[in-house]
Specification:
Elements: H1 7-16, H2 20-29, H3 34-48, H4 57-60, H5 62-76, H6 79-98, H7 104-111, E1 117-120, E2 136-140, E3 143-154, E4 161-171, E5 174-183, E6 189-195, E7 205-216, E8 220-221, H8 227-242, H9 244-261, H10 268-294, H11 302-319, H12 329-340, H13 344-360
Length: 362
């Protein structure tokens, strides 16, 4: 059997998720009750048992994180949940690197499942393109005052903390961005446009309206004016690379669903082709994670990410004809499509940079 993560990682993850299916369906089918049926009754107990702390990159490295994300996605047949778990790990890592000591209780709450953290970078109509974003933060009397709109904030509907990217200066035509931590109860911060899309996990996504939102100077994460490079772009690479493993886990889960629903004799060729692509994506994801562990500064993983995403698209094409015979595949396929397309614009820009660098040397 194809079994990319080691048995110890897979079994370790599986023990956290015993009995998860009922709660997962409750969270997804009744988004208005997601907080009580999922976050209170399941996410927090999971985290209290160490689901986030035990897999911290600082404790075991990103290769271990990728293996666990694959196992979560396959074990639960829910890549959105794995993506949410992965997102919380990355945000905790960011806070541990850049937040001051006064924010340690907030970090502990996230690790123990009492809070969620969301990243607010993209803006309506322009995405995350730094040339076109408009949200600003000005320093006044020891406070940063944030004004602007944010869009597509994953986990935002249930987040207690938001990491907000805002313009704090300008050098010529170059906008200088800083990252600021804001609480959901902060005056001047309003959540709007809530959407519960299963592919993005039980937390859904939303927009943010920031109008004269005041945060203390200590809410600044890292050096002012440099967050587009140190946080936004770096996090994009980490997320794109580490999402490959849960996408592979979802492809394995799709193969599992096919084999349980359809006469196996008719599946041999299709399942074989799907498994080969899933295993290739998994290995690219694990390799990318190992390179993140080994390399400083952050390596350019564009070839691995683009190659893996092409294989995912091929696997989806192989799965599509079986939808009518295995209707439970629909949710998985939609989730895989969504996750495979995250950050597509940034990926295209990196591909173009690779091409320009290559052609300039010819």
């Amino acid at each position: 059997m194809f079994h990319t993560p080691s048995h110890s990682i897979y079994d370790n993850v599986a023990r956290y998720f015993s009995g998860f299916t009922t709660l997962r369906h409750a969270a997804h089918t009744r988004p208005d009750q997601a907080r009580t049926t999922f976050f209170r009754d399941y996410w927090q107990p999971l985290c209290e048992r160490g689901l986030l702390r035990d897999f911290s990159p600082a404790a075991g490295g990103y290769a271990k994180v990728a293996g666990a994300a694959l196992a979560i996605a396959r074990n639960c047949a829910d890549p959105g949940l794995a993506a949410m778990w992965l997102g919380q790990l990355l945000k905790v890592g960011l806070l541990q690197s850049y937040a001051g000591p006064e924010w340690q209780p907030a970090i502990a709450d996230i690790l123990d499942g009492r809070s969620l953290c969301a990243l607010a970078i993209s803006e309506p109509g322009v995405g995350a393109h730094p040339k076109h974003m408009k949200c600003t933060a000005r320093l006044e009397n020891g406070e940063y005052i944030i004004d602007g709109d944010k869009a597509y904030v994953s986990d935002g509907p249930f987040a207690d903390w938001f990491i907000v990217l805002a313009i704090t200066g300008q050098h010529g035509k170059l906008k200088q961005y800083s990252a600021l931590l804001a609480h959901s109860a902060q005056n001047g911060l309003r959540i709007s446009g809530v959407s519960h899309q299963r592919a993005l996990g039980p937390g859904g996504h939303c927009n943010l309206v920031l109008d004269n939102c005041r945060v203390p100077h200590s809410a600044l994460l890292g050096d002012p004016g440099n967050a587009d490079i140190t946080i936004s772009r770096t996090l994009r690479t980490f997320e794109d690379a580490l999402l490959l493993a849960p996408i592979a886990g979802a492809l394995f889960a799709a193969a599992d669903a096919l084999s349980a629903s359809i006469d196996q004799a008719s599946l041999v060729e299709s399942v074989g082709q799907i498994l080969c692509r899933a295993e290739s994506v998994a290995q690219l994801g694990i390799l990318s994670a190992k390179l993140l562990d080994q390399s400083t500064p952050t390596p350019d993983l564009t070839p691995f990410i683009v190659g893996a995403r092409s294989l995912v698209s091929e696997a989806l094409d192989l799965l599509e004809p079986w939808l009518a015979d295995a209707c439970q595949l629909d949710d998985l396929i939609q989730a895989i499509k969504t996750l495979n397309g995250i950050g597509a614009g940034a990926t295209r820009a990196r591909v173009n940079t690779l091409a320009h660098n290559y052609l300039s040397q010819r």
